Amino acid sequence: MGKSPAVELEVEDRVVRISNPDRVYFPARGETKLDLANYYLSVGDGIVRALRERPCMLHRFPEGVTGEKVHQKRLPNGAPPWVRTVRVHFPRYNRHADELCVTHVADVIWAVQMSTVEFHPWNSRAADTEKPDEWRIDLDPGPTCSFDRVRRVALVAQEVLAELGATGFPKTSGSKGLHIYVRIKPEFGFQDVRKAALAFAHEVERRAPDDVETTWWRKDRDPSLVFVDYNQNARDHTIASAYSVRGFPEATVSTPIRWDEVPDVDPRDFTIATVPKRYAELGDLHAGIDDAVWSIEPLLEKAARDELEVPDEQ
After folding, report:
1. DSSP H helical segments within the chain, as ranges?
2. Model's pTM, two decimal places?
3. Left, alpha or beta for 20 (phi > 0: left; psi -120 to 50: alpha)?
4. Rounded-to-integer distance, Cα 278 and Cα 143, Å
5. What is each CA distance from 92 to 6, 236, 314, in whole angstroms?
6. What's the superkingdom here (predicted)?
7. How far apart are CA 126 and CA 241, in angstroms?
8. Are 210 and 231 in contact (CB under 8 A)?
9. Beta strand extents in the chain (DSSP E only)
10. What are the b/e assignments for 154-171, b being 16+ CB within 10 Å?
11. How many CA atoms does the CB half-sphere of 235 hold within 13 Å?
12. What is the pLDDT of residues 7-64, one digit of tens each?
């Protein structure tokens, strides 16, 4: 069977060509490359807000999500002149990479044309890539951990954030966990943000010792507990953004949720087939995140009092 003819999508003031639009990317329901592009158009403001001005690693699936996955740091060749990049340095290898820097929904659709399914942005922005402005709380369940436990831990995290005076914006991971994002002042480097995240994780563990652990080595963790993964705030560690589709046959989406949805949320309910209607009804539940900026200083003070040090990055 030959390839389907390309289509051109008008994306505000730009045109993006989608080649082979009928290629099936998600076999569970048969959604195609064009379906993926149309999904991202339906949540355009939200995905741009989640990615705006951030270095972004792309997870590309040239043959669909059951095929090979390509982790792409550098911008793929052939980008239109309007696609921006931001240069980041990797000290371990003493190398640079010019990564996608989204400013417009057409940038996202062009990345889909290049077979991108998942978008994994840094937690810092182009203005100063060494100073994160986003603290990410990753509630990572062990292999035998129930999702009920993840929900309970999320509500404990909400309680701690409220006492700190910080506003958390929850979302599903699109897989088995939950994420909570907090917008922070870009005053500190990655190591300090990571240390603040560790202090927070310890406090959540103190309040929910039967549900949480912060053990560094995976092999030493209880597989039935939730790991509050503070290491997701390390330099060049990325997780799927809000509204990013995940590379699973069911086309699940990392979806912003309200706090009152947490007790009953099921991440499997959010897919490229269901999220557009939800988005049309609710809008972007993370729309206020840039107006809720908080300083990590109280957590750094707690880390100092408790003499906490983050392990070397692995």
Report:
1. 33-42, 44-51, 105-113, 147-164, 190-207, 275-282, 297-305
2. 0.96
3. left
4. 30
5. 41, 11, 12
6. Bacteria
7. 17
8. no
9. 7-11, 14-18, 24-26, 31-32, 55-60, 70-72, 85-90, 95-101, 116-121, 134-141, 169-172, 178-183, 212-213, 226-228
10. bebbbebbeebebbbbbb
11. 16
12. 999 999 999 999 999 999 999 999 999 999 999 999 999 999 999 999 999 999 999 9
Please answer whether residues 58 and 120 qualify as being in contact, where contact means their C-beta atoms are separated by less than 8 angstroms: yes
Task: Tell me the DSSP string of 137-159.
Answer: EEEEE-TT--HHHHHHHHHHHHH
Asked if 108 contacts 37 with a C-beta cutoff of 8 angstroms, the reply is no
Write the burial class of residue 201 (CB in 10 Å: 0-12 exposed, 13-18 middle, 19+ buried): buried
Residue type, 93: Y
Expressed in angstroms, the distance from the first to the final Cα of the chain is 46
Q: What residue type is 207 in one-letter code? A: R
Yes or no: say if 199 and 302 are a contact pair by the CB < 8 Å rule.
Answer: yes
CA separation (Å) from 69 to 66, 234, 246?
9, 23, 12
Measure the CA–CA gap between 28 and 31, rounded to whole angstroms. Answer: 8
The token pair at 263 is 């007790």
**How many Å apart are CA 213 and CA 177, to the nearest integer?**
15
Query: Residue 44's closest CA among 314, 283, 215?
Result: 283
Distance CA 227, CA 223 (A): 9
Neighbours of 15 (CB within 10 A): 12
Q: C-alpha dihedral over 287, 173, 58, 198, to 10 degrees?
A: 90
pLDDT digits (tens, 9 = 90+) for 112-141: 999 999 999 999 999 999 999 999 999 999
